[in-house]
């Protein structure tokens, strides 16, 4: 069946876009093509249709207005790092940390998969912009997808529809990143659909030179909302390298001290290691306030004054549900309470509300679990999938900074790196220099989480929390970070390394975390102001005893001391692991990082 040209009904004159849409339609053979305008009417249409097909459940409008739940296929619940490819022209440019396939070969393989893959479905064309439309250089993308779940999610997560499409032709045909997505589940005439169409074969492919993304087989957010990880991190990291800026896996936060001083913090933690929570922190230290600018991605550029300015390219939150509750993250709970949200793989209560482990201290007496089975608290499986998610407009966050979509962004005072380490890494340490800070980021490690498929709890190096997201050679990426210091007139932020996840011998967290992390943030601001000293250690500068404000904290001093402590024996064990990691990055690794490792080694001798 050939698609009639009229049925493309294109609301644009953008020549390259029109040609690409036609080419994809001819290849994938959808029943219809729909250009998304981003309107409420469109949201209403796609959500209603998904309720009809069983993809979505409408939640109780009194508890969760205009909100829905999606149960995915049980094999389509997380990012698939082993199916994610950086298809650079030269294999060496993908580096040792990425999977690589020759771009021509990948395109041949995927073209065959896409052939007819949208039969029986609607092909949606989603024009979008990462970051505000009035940015100096707006970064456009267009996602073509056969998934209405993607349409609804992209409406929450990005600026999408008619406005970015109009902006794309306002001043000649603008550049855009083509993002092609198919769930890979064509329907034959008369064939009934399943609630969550997907394919056992999955490819998340990136073409860095061409600045294009092709995704096939998965409907899960990180694999299918291509503006997020694929564009704003993997492709954007390549753009940033070429253009002299940074595209990072970071939250952006404004802290306001009791005296009204403002500080801006960007923090990189691996997936499911606390970014969304820190971004929305409700400080427990009296008088402190915090405002959120972003919770997952930061684009940072050196401004005219030499400072590093960060913007959040996203427009929504795609947060880990389990562990999010009124005591841990009340601001996330308030954000969702306003409705207009999509939940994925959580549990649903008899009242048509959502529930997950950690949302309330008492579980509902019964619920329907993430796979649609009857569940009670006595069951030994969790009600919600550990990587279940809430997807909510950022505008609903009660602590959103009112200038969050300022095109210039906010000047960053401190960069935090962190991860989930049960041992070794102290609660907080400060880098002695930019180079030492880059070393901290480069050697950052974390236990794997349910955010990606594969075993959970394995310690791995995760440089700048970007291991799965660097779109080129990791050693060149670290070189790019180092090179920021060589720019004329630059005044870079201070760098800190934090670990909220250190555990006692009996497996309990030593530090209470969440709102109490404000105590660590307060110490960081005092360091920025030169208001307190610090203790030198091989791991960096540590708080002097008494300088962390612990007033009102109900964790005993001894436990806190163990969270803060530097343990030379543990660090001696760490050195060979860092050596091994650096060796795996090969000869392109900058000498400055080998130097820092030498400094660490000799200071431990
Ligand atoms: P993100 O994926 O990096 O944005 O991480 P989230 O903020 O969504 O948190 C992931 C998981 O870690 C959730 O289950 C949180 O409840 C938990 N978490 C976040 N911050 C802390 C903390 O400070 N301490 C502890 N123990 N857990 C935390
Ligand atoms: P997260 O975002 O970092 O908030 O978990 C999704 C992901 O990284 O997969
Ligand atoms: Mn993330
Ligand atoms: Mn998050």
Automatic annotation (TrEMBL):
Co-factor: note: Binds 1 Mn(2+) ion per subunit.
Gene Ontology cellular-component terms listed: cytosol
Keywords of this entry: Cytoplasm, Decarboxylase, Gluconeogenesis, GTP-binding, Kinase, Lyase, Manganese, Metal-binding, Nucleotide-binding, Pyruvate, Transferase
Catalytic activity: oxaloacetate + GTP = phosphoenolpyruvate + GDP + CO2
Binding annotation for GTP: 272-277, 389, 420, 514-517
Domain Phosphoenolpyruvate carboxykinase GTP-utilising N-terminal: 20-241
Co-factor(s): Mn(2+)
Metal-binding among keywords: yes
PROSITE patterns named among the record's database cross-references: PEPCK_GTP (PS00505)
Pfam families listed in its UniProt record: PEPCK_GTP, PEPCK_N
Binding site for Mn(2+): 229, 249, 296
InterPro entries named in the record: PEP_carboxykin_GTP_CS (IPR018091), PEP_carboxykinase_C (IPR013035), PEP_carboxykinase_GTP (IPR008209), PEP_carboxykinase_GTP_C (IPR035077), PEP_carboxykinase_GTP_N (IPR035078), PEP_carboxykinase_N (IPR008210)
Active-site annotation: 273
Any GO MF annotation of the entry: phosphoenolpyruvate carboxykinase (GTP) activity
Enzyme Commission numbers on file: 4.1.1.32
Record-listed substrate binding positions: 79, 220-222, 271, 387-389
Domain Phosphoenolpyruvate carboxykinase C-terminal P-loop: 245-601
Pathway where this protein functions: Carbohydrate biosynthesis; gluconeogenesis
One of the GO biological process terms: response to lipid
Localization (cell): Cytoplasm
Subunit text: Monomer.
Function: Catalyzes the conversion of oxaloacetate (OAA) to phosphoenolpyruvate (PEP), the rate-limiting step in the metabolic pathway that produces glucose from lactate and other precursors derived from the citric acid cycle.
Family membership noted in the UniProt record: Belongs to the phosphoenolpyruvate carboxykinase [GTP] family.
Protein name: Phosphoenolpyruvate carboxykinase [GTP]
Source organism phylogeny: Bacteria, Bacillati, Actinomycetota, Actinomycetes, Propionibacteriales
GN (gene name): pckG
């Amino acid at each position: 069946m050939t698609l009639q040209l009229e049925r493309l009904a294109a609301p644009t004159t953008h020549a390259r876009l029109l040609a690409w849409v036609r080419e994809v339609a001819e290849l994938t053979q959808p029943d219809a093509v729909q250009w998304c305008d981003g309107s409420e009417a469109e949201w209403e249409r796609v959500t209603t249709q998904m309720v009809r097909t069983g993809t979505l459940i409408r939640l109780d409008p009194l508890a969760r207005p205009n909100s829905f739940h999606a149960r995915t296929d049980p094999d389509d619940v997380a990012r698939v790092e082993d199916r994610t490819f950086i298809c650079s022209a030269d294999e060496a440019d993908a580096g040792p940390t990425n999977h690589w396939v020759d771009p021509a070969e990948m395109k041949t393989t995927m073209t065959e998969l896409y052939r007819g893959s949208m039969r029986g479905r609607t092909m949606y064309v989603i024009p979008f912009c990462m970051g505000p439309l009035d940015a100096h250089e707006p970064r456009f993308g267009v996602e073509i997808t056969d998934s209405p779940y993607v349409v609804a999610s992209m409406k929450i997560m990005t600026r999408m529809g008619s406005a970015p499409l109009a902006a794309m032709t306002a001043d000649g045909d603008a550049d855009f990143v083509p993002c092609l997505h198919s769930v890979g589940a064509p329907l034959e005439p008369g064939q009934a659909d399943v609630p969550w169409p997907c394919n056992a074969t999955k490819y998340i492919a990136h073409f860095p030179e061409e600045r294009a993304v092709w995704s096939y087989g998965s409907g899960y957010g990180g694999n299918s909302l291509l503006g997020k990880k694929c564009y704003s991190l993997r492709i954007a990291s390549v753009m940033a390298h070429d253009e002299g800026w940074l595209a990072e896996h970071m939250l952006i936060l404004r802290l306001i001290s009791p005296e009204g001083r403002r500080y801006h913090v960007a923090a990189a933690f691996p997936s499911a290691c606390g970014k969304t929570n820190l971004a929305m922190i409700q400080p427990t230290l009296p008088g402190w306030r915090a405002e959120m600018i972003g919770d997952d991605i930061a684009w940072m550029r050196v401004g005219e004054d030499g400072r590093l300015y960060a913007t959040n390219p996203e427009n929504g939150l795609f947060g880990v549900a389990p562990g999010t509750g009124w005591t841990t993250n009340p601001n996330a709970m308030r954000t969702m309470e306003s409705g207009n949200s999509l939940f994925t793989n959580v549990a649903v209560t008899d009242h048509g509300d959502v529930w997950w482990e950690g949302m309330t201290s008492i579980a509902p007496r019964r619920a329907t679990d993430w796979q649609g089975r009857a569940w009670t608290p006595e069951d030994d499986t969790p009600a919600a999938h550990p990587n279940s998610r809430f997807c909510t407009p950022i505008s609903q966050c009660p602590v959103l900074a009112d200038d969050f979509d300022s095109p210039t962004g906010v000047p960053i005072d401190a960069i935090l790196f962190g991860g989930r380490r049960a041992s070794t890494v102290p609660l907080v340490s400060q880098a002695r220099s930019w180079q030492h800070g880059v070393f901290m980021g480069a050697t950052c490690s974390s236990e794997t989480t349910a955010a990606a498929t594969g075993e959970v709890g394995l310690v791995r190096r995760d440089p700048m929390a970007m291991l799965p997201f660097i779109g080129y050679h990791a050693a060149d990426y670290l070189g790019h970070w180092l090179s920021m210091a060589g720019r004329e007139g630059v005044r870079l932020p201070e760098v800190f390394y934090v670990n909220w996840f250190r555990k006692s011998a009996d497996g309990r967290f030593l530090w209470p975390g969440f709102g109490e992390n404000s105590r660590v943030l307060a110490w960081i601001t005092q360091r920025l102001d030169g208001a307190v000293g610090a203790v030198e250690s091989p791991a960096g500068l540590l708080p002097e005893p008494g300088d962390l404000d612990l007033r009102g904290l109900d964790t005993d001093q001894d436990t806190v001391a163990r969270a803060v402590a530097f343990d030379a024996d543990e660090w001696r064990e760490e050195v060979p692991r860092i050596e091994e990691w650096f060796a795996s990055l090969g000869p392109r690794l900058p000498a400055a990082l080998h130097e820092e490792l030498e400094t660490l080694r000799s200071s431990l001798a």
